[in-house]
Amino acid sequence: MTIQAETKKHNNNNKHPSRKHSSKKKDSVTVSVLNDKSPLIPKKKGGDDHFNGASKSGAVMNLSTTIIGAGIMALPATMKVLGLALGIAAIVLVAVLSESTVRILLKYSRGGRTDSYGSLMGDAFGDVGKKMLQACVVINNLGILVIYMIIIGDVVAGSTSNGLHHPGLLEGWFGPHWWSGRVFVLMVTTICVFVPLASLKRMDSLSVTSGLAVALAVVFLIVMVAISMFKIVSGSLPMPQFLPDIKDINSVWNLFTAIPVLVTAYVCHFNVHTIGNELEDPSFIEPVVQISLVLCTMVYIMTSFFGFVLFGDATMGDILSNFDSDLGVPFSAELNDIVRISYALHLMLVFPLVFYALRLNTDGLLFSSAQLPLESDNKRFGFISVSLLTLVYLGANFVPSAWDAFQFTGATSAVCIGFIFPAAIAIRDAHGIATKGDKILAVLMICLAVFANVVAIYSDAYALFKKNPSPRA
């Protein structure tokens, strides 16, 4: 039901002779509009004039931080699968497609006068479409947050892969103890870091932490580039692989295993509307998206290139795991610590942005008939937050590796959120505003996304059952 229809219904009800009945109708309509159309926190609440809208720079930081999460750590491993030339081309292609899909969402949001991704899906496909999107966001974001916590655990507490142990920061500094183990470290991180950050109710409140998160990612990148350049000049690095190594048909199928990682790296669609709603001028959201995508693409290309050049065939699914041994440069141990600490802190600061959308969509799935918006119901807000943090914590202790989680979320929910659902909205064209080019692009995106991810799932399953080497090895 559109906002205009709700408003018309409300106006008609005001004419009813029963004042009490009219009041109930008004409350019902207000709650419906709040639940279906409003962001989690409105721009002003209770007459508070201190928040008149987020700045453009703050929006860029928040969206860029949403994009640059853990996906950057797996991108160098995709270069091992695709080669530098094809890998970098794939990064640029996915960035262009991502910009196109966000543009579709914003175009049809204006056409249907909706201000959230869920409302847009509901406008096009009804309540079923809205629930499908919410379910995909919950699965995707839950998987992403599990990945974040896995990487934080790998960095701080260490990990073991293929019989090889990679000591974490605490073990390297103080030796193995019960308090330096993964279970205890992640519990302390959850209670002391994630619980306070997850309690923030307005996304603009995270703009400062988002700026710091981007800065920490740049620190990681600068250190890695400096190490790579030093080793290139000294002649201690071999020539990198520019094209994929194709030996047989299985090698061809293996190329598609990189697709889910690339898709996951650019999925930010679930936060675009929320960031736009909080802007001083919501029309700024389009340049915000473009600036953020260009910034993140540059970071992705540099990280992929120099990460793969530095470690070559030894590049792991989580490249941070490579920074636990002698790098062959002066102050190697100190540089390893700087890289791992900076990115662990980065992920901690990214966590609340992804958790924000996870909590909001979980509430939409489980409490769609609630009479109060989420931020006004402290018990519901706290229950959902604690439950989700507990699930993330348990997942991080039982999922084998970040690459496994990337493969699952990227090949399922992420591709739906980032490509299939926006393309389906354009094809459905509920308001008759699609151009011929929009529909052609939408059909191509759906075909490409479905084909690439079916092949990726098949390739992963084949490698698992045949026990072939994985790119994370």
Automatic annotation (TrEMBL):
The keyword tRNA processing does not apply. It comes from the Eukaryota. Keywords: Amino-acid transport, Membrane, Transmembrane, Transmembrane helix, Transport. It holds the Pfam family Aa_trans. GO terms for cellular component: organelle membrane. The keyword Membrane applies. Residues 58-457 form the Amino acid transporter transmembrane domain. The chain crosses the membrane at residues 59-78, 84-106, 138-159, 179-200, 212-232, 252-272, 284-311, 341-360, 381-399, 405-427, 439-459. GO terms for molecular function: L-amino acid transmembrane transporter activity. Residues 1-31 are annotated as: Disordered. This is Amino acid transporter transmembrane domain-containing protein.
